[in-house]
């Protein structure tokens, strides 16, 4: 039996394999403010992990640290056995981490299919000379990127929207397109920042189904920030709860649901509530 | 079905762009040969061609890369003087003027491209207004450097000085660049044909570039830099690529422009010229190549056509600019346009139905 670190919340099928993502004592300060501190986490190869916490707990900051949008003040990030220290956001993406954004960031002036093609950028072999002359294998590389992009769009039932302008899509489809674009980079882990925000219950159900399909089809790990507890408790195998930049609980959905520290972070302490009522 | 639609969109822009240029050439060339065009307008044909190339290349920076560059004339200047020096140096080695012109244009493009690289590395780290101001500064720096540059050629090769013409120390040499007075003794080699070929080349490069992997990366950076980084696109590299291509094309235009005159000075390529080109791009529509071509041709000819109103020429020019801006940006005008085109379409369909 492989020794598992005490903080691990890896599903059993992934236990024998090296984790896809590990962070050790990660922390970042903005000026004098410590936004995230002592953030240690392990995510398994094909795990669906959840990162939850009250507003302003530092969840998106963690995502920005993992994708090197921010450089950590302390700690290490190990992605697939390699450190991501001193890499740019683009380099980390090429190492196999993909993400979506809380406030959707599409290439809104471009068509739906071109958005996905941009995601395929690093897997399409087309030289600058081919780009300018449209010779030297341009046709072949364009066909490959088109086919792959359509395949991805088809996965999300969006193939018929391929030529639409991305910015003109309805909200839910923009979210799906953002996920498709992220998957186009051939990641080994995808980070979803509030994927269900602004969705109605039926759309959320569809999203849950899609997240499972992503994991099963692409054999990758999914880590998501979400406020919709129904979604989190339904699909996440491991959950990490963040409050004021610190991890206050880790474990399976059942453990998290009954954890007093979590309930306190979300609902406040009983005593305080009573005092508030008196005051 | 889908595929043909996509293909059509790309080819449609191509056909429009190439078509307009070729059509204009087919009409203008015989007219010019037959002497049907007045001298003053005939003399403007090559400058119009070069300004169209300038506008298309600036559109790559402003429209597709999404960065405001106020120093585009600087690259034109580098290309112009490199081209002149190359052409004069090769006067004996390459007797055929067409070939000499081609080499001069290529040299102008290469040197302007290098200038684009050198300037682009620091400048493209900035964003928005800051970038615009620094490009403005670089444009002026280029102008001022060329303003105090003395270049001559003799049997032993090129001589360069920054003090005065005597410091060149030439023996029986020919002075090419005489400081603030600019380049002298240029053989006029530019022609409408050369200009149109250069436009077609520029269209080929820019339209292909925009519809390619690299071009998509550039447009993606414009639309959302953070998202582009998140899918693994190295922002600096692609910004630089687009900027260098834009600069190189401007250099080629500059070389052709210079070959249209017997003398040319650096002050021709100042801030006003950069702004003029920017006006063409903005009025033609950012990211709209066909628009750049039409706007340049019309706006460049406008002052010429307004000679009749003499003193009020620039006033009328300014009013026309404002009117065009208002017309193209107002919602009402757009609605009106849509309604008319809709009606036309309906009428056509009706006719078809009846017939």
Describe what this molecule looks like in 3D.
The complex is a heterodimer of chains A (279) and B (355). Chain A folds into two domains: 1-96 and 187-279, 3-Layer(aba) Sandwich (Rossmann fold); 106-185, no CATH class. Chain A contains eleven helices and ten strands. Chain A has helices spanning 59-66, 89-95, 112-119, 128-133, 138-155, 171-183, 201-218, 229-235, 253-257, 260-267, 270-278, and strands spanning 21-30, 33-43, 48-52, 74-79, 82-83, 97-99, 189-193, 221-225, 238-243, 246-251. In chain A, helix 7 (201-218) links the parallel strand 7 (189-193) and strand 8. In chain A, helix 3 packs across helix 5 (138-155) and helix 3 (112-119) runs parallel beside helix 6. The termini of chain A are far apart. Chain B is mostly helical and 355 residues long. Chain B has one domain (2-354): ABC transporter involved in vitamin B12 uptake, BtuC. Chain B has 14 helices and three strands. Chain B has helices spanning 2-33, 39-42, 45-64, 72-89, 97-123, 128-147, 192-210, 213-223, 225-230, 235-258, 271-284, 289-305, 313-329, 331-354; strands at residues 150-154, 157-161, 174-178. In chain B, strands 2-1-3 form a three-stranded antiparallel sheet, covered by helices on one side. In chain B, helix 4 (72-89) runs parallel beside helix 6 (128-147) and helix 11 crosses helix 12 (289-305). The longest helix of chain B is centred in the N-terminal third of the chain and has 32 residues, at 2-33. Classes of the chains: A alpha/beta (279), B mainly alpha (355). Chain A binds chain B through residues 67, 69, 88-91, 93-94, 98-99, 101, 105-110, 113-115, 117-119, 121-122, 124, 126, 128, 130-134, 138, 141-142, 145, 162-163, 181-182, 184-185, and chain B through 2, 5-6, 205, 208-209, 211-217, 219-220, 222-224, 226-235, 241, 245.
């Amino acid at each position: 039996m492989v020794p598992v670190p005490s903080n691990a919340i890896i599903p059993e099928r992934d236990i024998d394999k090296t984790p896809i993502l590990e962070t050790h004592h990660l922390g970042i300060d903005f000026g004098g403010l410590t936004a995230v501190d002592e953030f240690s986490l392990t995510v398994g190869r094909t795990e669906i992990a959840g990162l939850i916490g009250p507003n302003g707990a530092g969840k998106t900051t963690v995502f920005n640290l993992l994708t090197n949008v921010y450089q950590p003040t302390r700690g290490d990030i190990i992605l697939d056995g390699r450190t991501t220290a001193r890499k740019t956001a683009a380099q980390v993406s090429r190492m196999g981490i993909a993400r979506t954004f809380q406030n959707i960031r599409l290439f809104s002036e471009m068509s739906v299919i071109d958005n996905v093609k941009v995601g395929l950028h690093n897997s399409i072999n087309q030289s600058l000379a081919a780009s300018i002359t449209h010779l030297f294998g341009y046709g072949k590389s364009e066909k490959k990127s088109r086919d792959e992009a359509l395949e991805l769009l088809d996965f999300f039932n969006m193939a018929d929207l391929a030529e639409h302008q991305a910015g003109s899509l309805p909200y839910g489809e923009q979210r799906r397109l953002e996920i498709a674009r992220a998957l186009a980079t051939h990641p080994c882990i995808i980070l979803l920042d509030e994927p269900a925000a602004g969705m109605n219950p039926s759309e959320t159900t569809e999203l849950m189904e899609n997240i499972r399909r992503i994991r099963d089809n692409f054999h990758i790990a999914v880590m998501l920030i979400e406020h919709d507890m129904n979604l989190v408790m339904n699909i996440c195998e491991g959950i990490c709860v963040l409050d004021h930049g610190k991890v206050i609980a880790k474990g399976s959905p059942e453990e998290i649901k009954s954890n007093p520290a979590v309930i306190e972070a979300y609902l406040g302490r009983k005593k305080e509530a009573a005092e508030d009522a008196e005051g | 079905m889908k595929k043909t639609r996509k293909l059509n969109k790309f080819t449609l822009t191509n056909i429009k762009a190439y078509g307009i240029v070729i059509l204009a050439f087919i009409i203008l060339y015989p007219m010019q040969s037959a002497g049907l065009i007045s001298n003053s307008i005939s003399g403007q044909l090559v400058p119009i061609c070069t300004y169209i190339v300038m506008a298309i290349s600036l559109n790559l920076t402003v429209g597709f890369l999404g960065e405001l560059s106020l120093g585009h004339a600087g690259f034109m200047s580098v290309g112009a003087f490199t081209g002149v020096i190359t052409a004069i140096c090769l006067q004996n080695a390459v007797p055929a003027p067409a070939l000499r012109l081609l080499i001069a244009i290529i040299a102008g493009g290469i040197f302007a491209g290098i200038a684009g690289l050198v300037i682009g590395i620091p400048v493209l780290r900035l964003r928005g207004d800051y970038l615009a101001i620094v490009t403005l500064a670089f444009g002026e720096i280029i102008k001022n450097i060329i303003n105090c540059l003395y270049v001559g050629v003799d049997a032993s090769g090129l001589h360069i000085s920054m003090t005065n013409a005597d410091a060149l120390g030439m023996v029986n040499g020919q002075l090419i660049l005489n400081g603030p007075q600019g380049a002298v003794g240029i053989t006029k080699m530019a022609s409408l044909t050369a200009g149109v070929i250069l436009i077609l080349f520029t269209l080929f490069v820019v339209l292909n570039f925009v519809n390619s992997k690299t071009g998509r990366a550039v447009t993606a950076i414009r639309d959302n830099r953070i998202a582009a980084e998140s899918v693994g696109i190295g922002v600096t590299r692609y910004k630089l690529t687009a900027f260098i291509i834009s600069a190189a094309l401007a250099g080629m235009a500059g070389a052709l422009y210079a070959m249209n005159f017997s003398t040319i000075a650096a002050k021709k390529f100042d801030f006003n010229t950069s702004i003029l080109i920017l006006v063409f791009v903005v009025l033609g529509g950012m990211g709209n190549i066909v628009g750049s071509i039409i706007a340049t041709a019309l706006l460049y000819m406008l002052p010429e056509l307004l000679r009749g109103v003499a003193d009020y020429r620039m006033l009328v020019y300014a009013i026309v600019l404002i009117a065009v801006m208002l017309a193209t940006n107002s919602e009402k005008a757009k609605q009106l346009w849509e309604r008319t085109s809709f009606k036309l379409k309906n009428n056509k369909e009706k006719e078809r139905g009846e017939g």
